[in-house]
Each structure stands twice: as C-alpha cells, then as structure tokens.
Amino acid sequence: MTELHQDGRAGIDAALVRRLIAQQFPHWADLPVTPVAVDGWDNRTYRLGPGLTARLPTAESYVAAVDKEHVWLPRLGPELPVEIPEAVAKGEPGLGYPYPWAVRRWIQGETASPGTVQDLDEFARSVSAFILALQNVDATGGPLAGAHSFHRGASLEHYHDETIDALAVLDLPHDVWDAALAASWDEAPVWFHGDIAGGNLLVRDGRLSAVIDFGTSGVGDPACDLVIAYTFFSGSSRAIFREAVAQDDAMWARARGWAFWKAAITYETSPASRQVLEEVLADHQANA
C-alpha cells in the first residue's frame, strides 16, 4: 500500500508503478520500469520500456494537470514547432495510490543547459518561436488561469503578500513589484506554458527539440513565459530573445514581477536566486 508522507506527498517507487501497470494496463506489464535521470518535484516519472513513461503526481495539488494535459496536449501538439508530450493513456487511483496518473510517449533529448545548448542566441530564437506559436493557438474553451496553473497566467496580486514579506526580509525595494502590479493584462486570454525553464526544454544536437511539462499551462496572461529571459539567457541571447518574442513594455514589467517573486521567495534555498534578483533589478532600472 502507498503511504502519504507527513507533507501529504505520496510515496512512489518503481515497484508501485509496476503493480499499477500490471493492474490497469496488463498489455504493458512486461515492460521494464526505471526512474528517469532528471525528475521533478510535482510528479515522479518512470521510463516504461523504450517508448513510454508513467507520470504520477506526488500530491493532490498537482492532480488537476493529469486531466488537463490528457485533453489539451493532443490539441496543442499539431500547432507547435517542436515536440511536446503525447498523451497515451490515463491511469486511475489504485493499490493505495490515491491519484489519477498518466502514460506518455517518451521524448528523446537532453535537458537544456549552457553545456547542452550549442548556440544560445539561436536557442533564444527557438524558444521565442515556441512561445509565439503557443500564444497563437486558438484559446477557445481552454483552461482559464487559476489554481490548476498555480495562478500562472493570472494576476500577480495572488502572490502579493508573500512577495512583500520576502522583500522585507531581504531588504529589497518594491519598485519592480509595484511596476508589475501596475501593468495589468487587459487583453483576451492566450495560451501560456507556465514554466518555460531549462528543466522543461529538451535539446538534440544542441538545438531545441521539445518542450515538456504542461502542468501549469492554461489560457490567460503569458507574461510568466518570459521569465526565462532572466533565468537562462543573458547578454546577446537575452537581447535576441526580447526582440524575437516581440512583447510590449507592460508584458515585460509583469515578466519581471514573476521572476522577482520566484527569486525572492526561493532566495534561501536556490543559489541562483540572488543573480536573478540582480538581473531583474538592473533590467527594471534600464527600462523604467
């Protein structure tokens, strides 16, 4: 039986996945189950033979993504310039594991990093092309930003109190945050990914080949998808990304707000957060 940890997270291992597969998808029961090399916090992912993965939410707050991705990934995929996960089947709670889960097609590729990307400038163009293509997908009936997207795509006001508290602890000015809140989104909702970051970008031969993990996706304000400008790009690649993605000043003000919020609340646990805060502050001052 699967036990929930004290923090509410489900205990997941390969043995559980094998039993769930055997129970619910017996035609795959003979396939080997192995953990992926780079895993996430929201879900545990296991290779299922050479061509599939099993992806299991670790807590109740991540469950909404299972149905959302199962419905929308097949609709988004044909409209986008690189691969995205392909929904194959949906598992049900069982054997003490309390949540629905997903079977997806395995996508070959390396996680994007300065060491795996061949040309950062070209990579910036490719990421911007993906973002623009996603924004251009028909958003009719799409999942409006909210709890399922952890409020990515919605107003930054949702994170106001914790941001102000974090800035007080760090003794940082409120200028970036105030400007982000003032630059409200008044347009029709468009598709956003919600977590465009190196860990969710795959490369083959040094070039962008796939975008994964649409768990925080939805329709709303796409400013959150520009945060990668501060967390991955710099110098010429950032300038190229900014030009290629072609967003207005208000969008960039909100993007700085998203980056500032995340870096401020993870300052104590993420070594990269200090650099992000400095980059965002400098960019705000340069574009104020």
Euclidean distance between termini CA atoms: 56 Å
As laid out across the biggest beta sheet, the strand order is 1-2-3-5-4
Sheet-strand content, in percent, reads 5-15%
**Biggest sheet architecture:** 5 strands, antiparallel
Uncertain regions spanning at least 5 consecutive residues? 4-9
Rg for CA atoms? 19 Å
Class per helix and strand makeup: alpha+beta
Output the CATH topology of the largest domain: Aminoglycoside 3'-phosphotransferase, Chain: A, domain 2
Helix-strand layout with pairing:
Blueprint: H1 14-24, E1 33-35, E2 43-48, E3 52-57, H2 64-76, E4 87-91, E5 101-105, E6 110-111, H3 120-135, H4 160-170, H5 175-182, E7 190-192, E8 201-204, E9 207-211, E10 218-220, H6 228-231, H7 235-245, H8 249-265, H9 273-287
Antiparallel strand pairs: 1-2, 2-3, 3-5, 4-5, 6-8, 7-10, 8-9
Helix pairs in contact: 3-7, 4-8, 5-8, 8-9
Structural write-up:
The chain is of the alpha+beta class and 288 residues long. The protein folds into 2 domains: 14-105, 2-Layer Sandwich (Phosphorylase Kinase, domain 1), CATH 3.30.200; 110-287, Alpha-Beta Complex (Aminoglycoside 3'-phosphotransferase, Chain: A, domain 2). It is built from 9 helices and 10 strands. A 5-stranded antiparallel sheet has the order 1-2-3-5-4, sandwiched between helices. α3 (120-135) runs parallel beside α7, α5 crosses α8 (249-265) and α8 packs antiparallel against α9 (273-287). Residues 4-9 have low confidence and may be disordered.
